[in-house]
């Protein structure tokens, strides 16, 4: 319960930050970066400080950001010293001729751009060192571990054996961070940031930095995903929400429900979305997903379990 309370406090803080930014007339793209930076700086979730550890006990982070109006995007992977991966993703979008930079090339670009760098140890928490040890003893990829076993969730542990790309894994669910925003001009933006899987192979890239999989924003909506990365990649989940709105004429929540039901096969995932009309939607095919939403007129809601 203490963990749930912590999550609610952090999400509420981020919502307040986002709302005050929107009230100051910041564009949607600025707000998603601002909120995700805050989430990366807090070690509670799996991004930035507090990221999951690779099989070698190091942190390799990834992130992506997308601006709906012109579908501009930036993504980064394999970061080991960049304090705020989401801001580097934004710089890739705005200051490089490319959409995606990874590993040493992304780190070189970070130095050129003068972003804040820290030692890899900064990202490593004592709790995660302990969890990596458990994962190695169990010879498994460990997803999230901080809610009691037996509660199936996009952010929990499950005792039943699950499979990823056909291989069994015994504990499930990362808490990748994401933010979607629509501003008062109807501009949508999305941002996603993660440390990936506990005990992952070094060099593994998940859905979070992949445009169309973990993150997507266009004229109609902005979407950010969390959960089993390999399943999200196969279903191009974030783009699929926009696609069924465009091609099937579905509303935002209908589109989210359709995609969660029809595009995940046996995978477990959740997503948050906003539309250019100011609608908010979320969906997941697991028991819970840490999430929050707020509007400029004062409405605010934070949830974990059923929708």
- Run of helices and strands: HHEEHEHHEEEEEEHHHEEEE
The strand count comes to 13
Structural class: alpha+beta
Kindly report the CATH topology.
Glutamine Phosphoribosylpyrophosphate, subunit 1, domain 1
Q: How would you name the CATH homologous superfamily? A: (Glycosyl)asparaginase
Q: Any guess at the CATH architecture?
A: 4-Layer Sandwich
Oligomeric state, counting identical vs distinct chains: single chain
Across the major sheet, the strand order is: 3-2-1-7-6
Helix percent reads: 25-40%
Integer tally of domains: 1
Radius of gyration: 18 Å
CATH class: Alpha Beta
Major sheet summary line: 5 strands, mixed
What gross morphology would you assign? globular
How many helices? Answer: 8
**Beta-strand residue fraction:** 15-25%
Average of pLDDT: 89
Uncertain spans, ≥5 residues at pLDDT below 50? Answer: 144-153, 155-174
Catalytic activity: Cleavage of a beta-linked Asp residue from the N-terminus of a polypeptide
Organism: Prunus yedoensis var. nudiflora
Protein name: beta-aspartyl-peptidase
GO biological process, one term: proteolysis
